[in-house]
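Input record, target 12 of the design panel.
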């Protein structure tokens, strides 16, 4: 089991997606396909989780990588660039942001 810890050099990425109830499930399906078929097999990938709010207007993704360069390399692949175009068509906006764990409780 992956554990969130602030004493690691891992890179945390939190991506938020603005969507609509009409496209939320399609977006989740596309994200699940991306993680199971491609992202989770990339060098440096540790783990990820998808979250959706009750109104189905926001999706959040939490992922961990060994290094920020691993995440960036995955984003630059032709396959991920194509997948991101499909993902972008299913949401209003999405934004991946890199974080370091400051504290855990």
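The sequence produced for target 12 reads:
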């Amino acid at each position: 089991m992956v554990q969130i810890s602030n004493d690691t050099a891992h890179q945390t990425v939190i991506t938020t997606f603005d969507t609509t109830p009409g496209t939320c499930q399609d977006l989740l399906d596309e994200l699940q396909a991306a993680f199971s078929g491609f992202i989770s097999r990339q060098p440096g990938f540790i783990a990820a989780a998808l979250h959706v709010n009750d109104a189905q207007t926001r999706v959040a993704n939490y992922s961990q990588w060994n290094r920020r360069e691993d995440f960036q390399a995955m984003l630059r692949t032709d396959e991920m660039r194509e997948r991101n175009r499909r993902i972008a068509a299913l949401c209003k906006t999405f934004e991946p942001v890199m974080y370091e764990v400051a504290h855990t409780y």
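The radius of gyration is 14 Å.
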